[in-house]
Structures are given as structure tokens and as C-alpha cells.
Backbone:
């Protein structure tokens, strides 16, 4: 009898697994874009992303520019250069990924008009697994709480 009682909790545990797959969701925080004058070739946008499962930011689109790209910055012979990431950006599960000045960022190529400080830009972020999200990015010259 004693051994049966010992086994009962184990049987219960076994019945509960495997756990259902976690839902793929990406939390988007504080999207913002730098101001740009009319005719500027490009403008940088920044955002915080946290994915619930291993995911990937695959594209960005906006009505405010001809197209959006995902860029990274790297040192090349002592010079900081931007590089287009055609395959997008990996978002490891549970990890906060900050797209910020001097690092990975979104680039609005050929904005259709001036991006004025205080206005907003709609950004549609597309992910490999999580549903796409459209967020309003505030146009400002520096991130909140960060001095120049
Ligand atoms: Cu760029």
C-alpha cells in the first residue's frame, strides 16, 4: 500500500505534462523616432522588444516613409557603420532587446515628409511567430530619461 501512495503524486505530474506551448507575444515598449527635416534620406527609430518565445523581428513598415529597414551598427576600421539586417533581428525568449542609438535600430528610408518633434509615426512591426503590431512612435530628439 505504501508504495502505491508514493506513486500517486508522480502519476498526477505525468498527466499534467507536456505543458501547452507558450503563446507567441512580443511586448513593445517606448517606440520613438528621431526628428527629420523634409527631404532627409532616412530617420532612425528605436523601441524595446521582449518576446515570450524565441522569435524574430522580420520587418518594419510605416506610412511615413517609402520603406523601413532593420539596421545594426558595427565598428569597421575604427568607423561606426550601419548595416542592413535583411534577415531581421533575433528575439530570444524572455530577453529584453533594446533597439537604441548606437546599436540595433529601425531605419525609415526616404520619409515622405518632415518628421516633426512632438508628432507621431505609425510603425507596423512584423514578427516570425507573434502577431504583427502597429504602434505609435513619438518623434523626439532623445530617449526619455537620457541626457545628451
Ligand atoms: Cu540605420
Residues:
Amino acid at each position: 500500500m505504501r508504495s502505491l501512495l508514493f506513486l500517486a503524486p508522480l502519476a498526477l505530474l505525468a498527466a499534467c505534462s507536456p505543458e501547452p506551448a507558450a503563446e507567441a507575444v512580443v511586448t513593445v515598449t517606448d517606440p520613438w523616432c528621431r526628428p527629420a527635416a523634409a527631404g532627409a534620406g532616412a530617420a532612425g527609430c528605436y523601441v524595446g522588444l521582449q518576446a515570450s518565445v524565441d522569435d524574430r523581428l522580420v520587418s518594419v513598415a510605416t506610412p511615413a516613409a517609402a520603406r523601413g529597414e532593420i539596421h545594426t551598427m558595427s565598428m569597421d576600421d575604427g568607423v561606426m557603420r550601419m548595416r542592413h539586417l535583411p534577415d531581421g533581428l533575433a528575439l530570444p525568449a524572455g530577453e529584453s532587446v533594446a533597439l537604441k542609438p548606437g546599436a540595433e535600430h529601425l531605419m525609415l528610408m526616404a520619409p515622405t515628409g518632415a518628421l516633426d518633434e512632438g508628432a507621431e509615426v505609425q510603425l507596423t512591426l512584423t514578427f516570425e511567430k507573434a502577431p504583427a503590431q502597429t504602434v505609435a512612435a513619438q518623434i523626439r530628439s532623445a530617449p526619455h530619461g537620457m541626457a545628451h
Notes: The CA atoms of residues 69 and 107 lie 5 Å apart.
